[in-house]
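stuck on whats below:

***
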Amino acid sequence: ADRGVICIDEFDKMTKTDHAAIREAMEQQCVTIAKAGLHLSLNTRCSVVAAANPINGNFDPSMDLATNIGLPDSLLCCFDLVFVVRDLTDRDVDHKIATHVVRQAGQSLNNGACRR
């Protein structure tokens, strides 16, 4: 979608072929499609929002970003901004959050929000 937004989840699970294709589209801002005897060049000037998980499910702050998520620097450099979101384990904070969520769900059920 030219001049749109593309959101990609599980970016780390894509194949190397997919990575190459998306990198080309991001760098050249167009893709060429050859199908049924037609050759088309389509613009891909769009914003890309992608989410990737760290290898083995845990981010290791002693390693660089590319190593943590298993993506090459050549692909990561196509992004203007990269944010690392970490869930730091804290038993007390996790317990407070879980208690709040369960309490809110109980109140919703008591107020008839999920009646069958």
Observations:
- The chain is about 35% helix and 15% strand.
